[in-house]
């Protein structure tokens, strides 16, 4: 079974190490000691990630969509072309780049610093093991 340090768990969760420590101290996920290091077992961290995602989804206004893979974040870049546009969103540790029409970007009011959610629905998803 794979285990993670609090620092590794924080990076995977997209939060600071202090936040991960506070969550562990509040017993939101179990930890154990290996010498001086605080460790989180992989299955426990995975369960917490699912729970945290559900809590985050409940906090947002319900979206009417069939796309279940939602990445809320902040717009970090917009490149406008004549007809198309490229929008970059930072969602926790994830950088998401999308190509869409210029008209859609203008209608949504997407600009650097705006909150946005990238929704992904795909028939082909590739997964690499780290």
Description:
This protein has helices spanning 6-13, 17-25, 42-59, 102-108; strands at 3-5, 32-34, 37-41, 69-80, 84-91, 94-101, 115-120. The chain has 130 residues and is α+β, with helices and mostly antiparallel strands. Helix 1 crosses helix 2 (17-25). The relative contact order is 0.14. The model has no long low-confidence stretch (mean pLDDT 85).
Shape type: elongated
Count, helices: 4
Helix and strand string, N-terminal first? EHHEEHEEEHE
Instruction: Give unreliable regions as ranges.
Output: none
SS content category: alpha+beta
Measured as a percent range, the helix fraction is: 25-40%
**Alpha-carbon distance between the termini?**
14 Å
Give the overall average pLDDT. Answer: 85
Strand content: 25-35%
The total count of strands amounts to: 7
Strands of the biggest beta sheet: in what spatial order?
Answer: 6-5-4-7
The Rg value, from CA coordinates, equals 18 Å
Largest sheet features: 4 strands, antiparallel
Question: Mind sketching the topology for me?
Answer:
Blueprint: E1 3-5, H1 6-13, H2 17-25, E2 32-34, E3 37-41, H3 42-59, E4 69-80, E5 84-91, E6 94-101, H4 102-108, E7 115-120
Helix pairs in contact: 1-2
